[in-house]
Amino acid sequence: MLDGLLTTFKDEITLKEIGWTCSTIFFNTLVTLAGYKLFQHGVIIFHLNFSVTELLADFLLLIVAMDFMMYVFHWAIHKLHALYRYHDLHHQYNNPTAVSLFVLHPVEVLGFGGLWLCLLTAIDFSIYAIILYLMFNVAMGIIGHLRKEFIPASVKNHTFFQWLANTGFHVDHHQYQQYNFGFYTKVWDRIFGTLK
């Protein structure tokens, strides 16, 4: 069984994907270092006291704010030809994988990272909410790039899940690029008429 998984993994992951993934990690590290420098100079401030109420409020604010900003950036990158040439790299994968999540041009990585740093400079968040959000962000990125929906249809059809992005939502975006620009939710796509 393990041999079969390794063979499948080896066949699906290319050296090109590994190279772009390393590039994405490198540029995300630069964004993190920039954030650290802003923190050192008091531009970014984190709250260290723990409160469940503050944690949840900050976590929800991070999701809503970043989902909106990333929706706008993602929509703009598709509509502006000068920017799309960078994003096209990611769209070379009509049938995305969890690794293709990290196949991003440095311009795109720095664009999303810039949005993140702008939000952190504008609002003081709980450090615990930030940690939770960062884990959530990676998990949602991986979920969006899986090939198979893992949420059972009985749960997926619940009203609550109709507002959340899922695997099929993002896979549809890779196949129909004029739709489904959201990252965590379908809210902005519903509001702006870009939901498939």
Automatic annotation (TrEMBL):
It is an enzyme of class 1 (oxidoreductase). GO terms for biological process: lipid biosynthetic process. The keyword Transmembrane applies. Its EC number is 1.3.3.-. GO terms for molecular function: iron ion binding; oxidoreductase activity. It is found in: Membrane. It comes from the Bacteria. Residues 59-194 form the Fatty acid hydroxylase domain. GO terms for cellular component: membrane. Its main location: membrane. PANTHER family: STEROL DESATURASE. This is Sterol desaturase family protein.
